[in-house]
Design a protein that fits this description.
278 residues, two-stranded antiparallel sheet, 1% strand
C-alpha cells in the first residue's frame, strides 16, 4: 500500500475517533478496526467480484457497524461503563467472531470492479481514495459546522450539564456517536477490501493506533467539545511523513510503532499540562 493511501485510510479511521471524542465522556473506539475487518469479510463474500453484489455488501457493512456501534453506545452511555473497556472488550468479541468464521470456512471472494476502481485506481495521477477523502472532509465540515448536528454534538462534549438543561438527550447523542463510528468503520472495511483485493483477519488492526494518534497530532481536545476533521487528516499525513523518515533512516516496523508511541506520549503530556493550566 502506498504511503498516500495509508495516510488516507488512517484519516478515515480518524473520523471514527473524532466522532466519539467530540461528544465528550472520554470517548474512544477501540473496536472500529475489527468492525471494519468483519464487514470486509462478509462484504467480499457477497460481492463475488461483481458490481451487482456491491449494494448488498454496503448494506451488510452498515448493519454490522450499526449493530456493534449501538451496543457500544448503550453500554457506554446508558450503563455508564468506560468507553476504553467497552470497546476493548467488543474488539475481542468481534475478533472471536472473525476467528470462528475463518475456522469454519475459508475467507474467499473478490471485491467488485467499482470498489476496486475507487480504492486502487488513480485519476490525473492522484489516487481516487484521496478524492473520496476530500469529499468526506468537506461533508464532515458542513455537517459539524453548519448544521444542528454539529452544535448538539459539540455542546454535549463541551458541557453535558448545560446541554441536558437545554433539552438535549445526552445519553442518546453519545450512543448515536458510537453508532455512527461503527457504520463508518464498516464502510471503511469495504474500501480496504477493494484496495487489497481480498479480506483477511486483522486487516484493519494496524490503523487503530495511527488513527488515534492522528486525532492527537491534529490538536483535537480529548475532553470533547470540538472537532476539526481537516486537522485529523493533516495529522495522518504528518504521521505518514514521520514513518517515511523512519524507513529512510533504516527503521522497520519496530521503530515505526515505537515512534507512534513516543509521539502520543509527548503530545498527551502537553495536553495534560495544558489542562492543568486551565
Amino acid at each position: 500500500m502506498t504511503t498516500v493511501k495509508f495516510a488516507s485510510y488512517t484519516a478515515l479511521f480518524g473520523l471514527c475517533q473524532l466522532i466519539v471524542i467530540a461528544c465528550g465522556g472520554n470517548g474512544i473506539d477501540l473496536s472500529v478496526g475489527y468492525i471494519a475487518t468483519l464487514s470486509g469479510i462478509f462484504g467480499v463474500a457477497v460481492m463475488k467480484g461483481e458490481n451487482k453484489g456491491l449494494p448488498l455488501a454496503i448494506l451488510i457493512a452498515v448493519l454490522v457497524g450499526l449493530l456493534f456501534g449501538v451496543i457500544n453506545g448503550i453500554l457506554v452511555s446508558y450503563f455508564r461503563l468506560s468507553a476504553l473497556v467497552v470497546t476493548m472488550a467488543m474488539s475481542s468479541v468481534i475478533q472471536g467472531i472473525v476467528n470462528a468464521y475463518a475456522a469454519g470456512m475459508s475467507i474467499s471472494g473478490n471485491p467488485s470492479p467499482v470498489l476496486r476502481t475507487i480504492a486502487t485506481k488513480s485519476t490525473f495521477g492522484i489516487p481516487n481514495i484521496v478524492f473520496l477523502l476530500v469529499l468526506i472532509i468537506l461533508l464532515v465540515f458542513f455537517v459539524l459546522k453548519k448544521t444542528k448536528i454539529g452544535a448538539i454534538l459539540f455542546g454535549v462534549g463541551e458541557n453535558e450539564t448545560t446541554a441536558f438543561l437545554s433539552g438535549v438527550n445526552v445519553r442518546l447523542v453519545r450512543c448515536m456517536a458510537f453508532a455512527v463510528s461503527g457504520v463508518v468503520g464498516g464502510l471503511i472495511g469495504l474500501l480496504l477490501v477493494g484496495n487489497m483485493g481480498m479480506a483477511y483477519k486483522d486487516m484493519a488492526s494496524s490503523y487503530l493506533l495511527p488513527s488515534y494518534a492522528a486525532v492527537v497530532v491534529g490538536g483535537i481536545s480529548l475532553s470533547g467539545g470540538e472537532g476539526h476533521y481537516l486537522r485529523v487528516a493533516l495529522g495522518a499525513v504528518f504521521l505518514q511523513v514521520l514513518t517515511n523518515l523512519f524507513i529512510q533512516f533504516g527503521g522497520g516496523d519496530a521503530v515505526r510503532w515505537t515512534g507512534y508511541g513516543v509521539v502520543l506520549y509527548v503530545l498527551l503530556l502537553f495536553y495534560a499540562n495544558d489542562r492543568r493550566k486551565r
